[in-house]
Write a structure and sequence with these properties.
The protein is an alpha/beta fold. It has eleven helices and eight strands.
């Protein structure tokens, strides 16, 4: 087991009262767009939900046999006076937005739909994780990213909340969290041991310290190179859910992939996952039958030339499709069978 703190062994073993109750068999997806960019400084990431829909997202899911209910794009309040607090930029704007996101995700999960949230920057996962965990306690988080997004307001150099979302929702992090205006509604609902990172390669000192202190499952690109993506993902899923019964929240940042595959993103980091590795992760999560919610974040159609934009959008759609059951071995929708000519009928 990699980089595990002895503290992890000392953490209380909490029994979850409610295990997975929603699976792929209901074939219903609740889609919600989050055109939000205040968690970081680059414009354009708020246009991704529209662009992904225009590129055929809903049709792709329909072809896989899903009934898709599109809840549209959320609308967010604009704050004219939103100064930084504890180095946190746009705290009221983000806090208000993620509350609306949490309420929407919770409603979709309660409707027995798999929630697909398309962003938008990664600050939105304060809302998606909180709303998911409220409606469906006992979730585990598979976090696919170049970054750990575990900074606290006091450890972050940038003050951008898209680099902090997990610190707001992880219970053990709360001793390090100051009060931030707009976030008083947030209830930390996730234990550190319920998170598995895959693909990290740009981790800040404060994040690395928390990962080791809290014993979070951590598989960087180094481990992917050393052990292979199959072994890494198998270990990650086993560590957060040895029983293989708990709902999965898949948070997929497009910058987890190498910038050659997804260049139109705000914080690219060289040496990322290959497309084969990225699709393998998606397919294996889908194969568990326990995907309950997915975030796809940090696609920015305003960055790069036209070829780079198209490549990023195409890659994002492939990741989503394979997370919902598309297989490189070949796929057919539920109920499909070959037609039989009448003269060949028994």
């Amino acid at each position: 087991m990699f980089c595990k703190s002895l503290l992890r062994c000392a953490l209380p073993q909490i029994r979850h009262s409610k295990l997975v109750s929603r699976r792929h068999f209901h074939r219903r997806v609740g889609l919600v767009g989050v055109p939000f960019s205040k968690g970081q400084t680059r414009g354009g990431v708020d246009t991704a939900p529209h662009v992904l829909r225009q590129a055929g997202l809903i049709g792709n899911l329909n072809e896989l046999g899903y009934e898709v209910r599109d809840y549209g794009d959320l609308k967010f309040e604009q704050f004219s006076d939103d100064p930084p607090v504890h180095n946190v930029k746009n705290p009221r704007s983000v806090g208000n937005a993620v509350k609306k996101i949490a309420d929407t995700v919770s409603m979709i999960i309660e409707n027995n739909e798999i929630c697909l949230t398309i962003g938008g920057d990664h600050s939105m996962t304060v809302g998606t994780v909180n709303g998911h965990a409220e409606a469906e306690p006992g979730i585990v988080i598979v976090w696919i990213d170049a970054h750990a997004d575990l900074n606290t307001p006091l450890s972050s150099d940038s003050g951008n909340i898209h680099g902090m979302p997990l610190s707001f929702v992880v219970k053990e992090c709360q001793r390090y969290m100051p009060n931030v205006p707009g976030f008083d509604w947030v209830k930390p609902r996730i234990w550190a041991r319920d998170i598995a990172y895959v693909g990290l390669r740009d981790v800040d000192p404060g994040e690395r310290w928390l990962i080791e202190q809290l014993g979070i499952s951590f598989y960087s690109i180094h481990e992917v190179d050393r052990y292979g993506i199959s072994e890494v993902l198998s270990r990650a899923l086993e560590e957060v859910d040895p029983t293989g019964k708990r709902p999965i929240h898949l948070s997929y940042d497009i910058d987890a992939l190498d910038p050659g595959l997804a260049p139109s993103t705000g914080t690219p980091v060289m040496g990322g996952l290959t497309l084969r590795e990225g699709l393998f992760i998606a397919e294996e999560v889908a194969a568990t039958g326990r995907l309950s919610a997915m975030d796809l974040v940090e696609v920015n159609p305003d960055l790069g030339d036209e070829a780079q934009k198209k490549r990023t959008i195409r890659t994002a759609l492939e990741i989503i499709k394979h997370s919902f059951g598309e297989r490189r071995q070949g796929t057919y929708p539920p109920g499909y069978s070959l037609p039989v000519p009448e003269n060949n009928s028994p």
